[in-house]
Amino acid sequence: MGVKVTILSSVSAQNRMAKASSSTPDGLTFVSFSDGYDDGLKLSDNIEHFRSENKLRGSKALSELIKARSDEGCPVTGVVYAMLLPWAAELAREFNLPPAPLWIQPATIFTLYFHYFNGSGDLVKKICNDLRVPLNYRLDALDAEVNLKILVNTFDALESKALKATGKHNLTAIVVYISFGSFFNLQLQEIEEIARGLLESNRPFLWVLRVLPDGEKQEDKLSCKEKLEKQGLIVPWCSQVEVLSHPSVGCFVTHCGWNSTLESLVLGIPVVCLPQFTDQPTNAKLLEDEFETGARATKNDEGIVEGDEIKRCIELVVGDGKIGEEIKKNSKKWKYLAKEAVKEGGSSHKNLRTFVDEIDDGF
Question: Which residues are in coiled coils (predicted)?
Fold first, then answer.
């Protein structure tokens, strides 16, 4: 294929590979590092210490390798890493290199994981209540990827169904969540346009449409209700934080109330902004221009956001174009910064501690 590959591994892993092969193909080189377990991991060893040392020493070795290859005029262009080593993906991103996990189990297993975490989890739990995902930290690392590519050790004829089952999906979040808070009710024409935009986007969705004070369901008035129900789900209420925390959700169509704005940022969800009044237009401007995590829909001359515009914004924030990639990247950034702020020693943690102390002291 005309590519040069360097395999970086621990001393113990390289020793095992050396025993299994007496020759090295052209274009392939091996580099090893000591993780402190040169004779291999034993059952009596502390697994957490092993993982910690492997990450610490492996990160240093990979960093030095990337820098050395650059100095030699043969820069690294991508990092393929074992799923057990998610730290390799973190380091690759620090060097602005695309990381790609190597899946060494059957594609069927990956398909099971994919559908469990992307919409079919409740169905699985009905069959098996006591479900445990082994080494789930491997899968958590995939959530950080904007445009995920996975190298699977199989071939099409062997596992065609499993490969097609995930291949037809974008392995990033795909569900659109729509909610306008607990106070504001949209006009029927506005709801119709949102429905049209959702249908034309052809993406699964979860839409919160509150029951009106007279007990009437707003969705019952929609002209396209039957088509909508085939594509997504309309509910009168849901736990917004739980929904936005789900890995399937990739877009939040919101009125841009401050609570919803913060939740989208803290949970790393790109947004389509449909502000209504008070602080919401300003919040929408912040999301689009300052935080750069969303797109604000433009109203027509009658003050209505048309379905075509809603579809455009959805595709803009969840699509694979340059703007969409930047929006998803920024969403991940704010999610990380929010976590840093509230953890012990973070800015919000320290400020809240200072506030409590000052109250105790009577200001």
Answer: none
pTM score, whole prediction: 0.59
pLDDT in tens, 266-302: 999 999 999 998 899 999 999 999 999 999 999 999 9
Q: In total, how many domains does the chain have? A: 2
Cβ contacts of 324 within 8 Å, gap of 6 or more:
270, 315, 316, 317, 318
Task: State whether 249 and 311 are in the same domain.
Answer: yes
Tell me, yes or no, whether 189 and 326 share the same domain: yes
CB 218 within 8 A of CB 212: yes
- The 175-179 sheet, strands edge to edge: 233-235, 205-208, 175-179, 249-254, 271-273, 294-296
pLDDT in tens, 320-334: 889 999 999 999 999
- Label residue 321 left, alpha or beta by phi (over 0 means left) and psi (-120 to 50 means alpha): beta
One domain, residues 192 and 81: no
Give dist(CA 11, CA 185) in Å, integer.
64
- 223 falls within a domain: yes
Residues 189 and 259 occupy one common structural domain = yes
Q: Are residues 56 and 191 in the same domain?
A: no
Cβ neighbours around 273 below 10 Å, total? 27
Q: Which residue range(s) make up the domain with 214?
A: 175-341
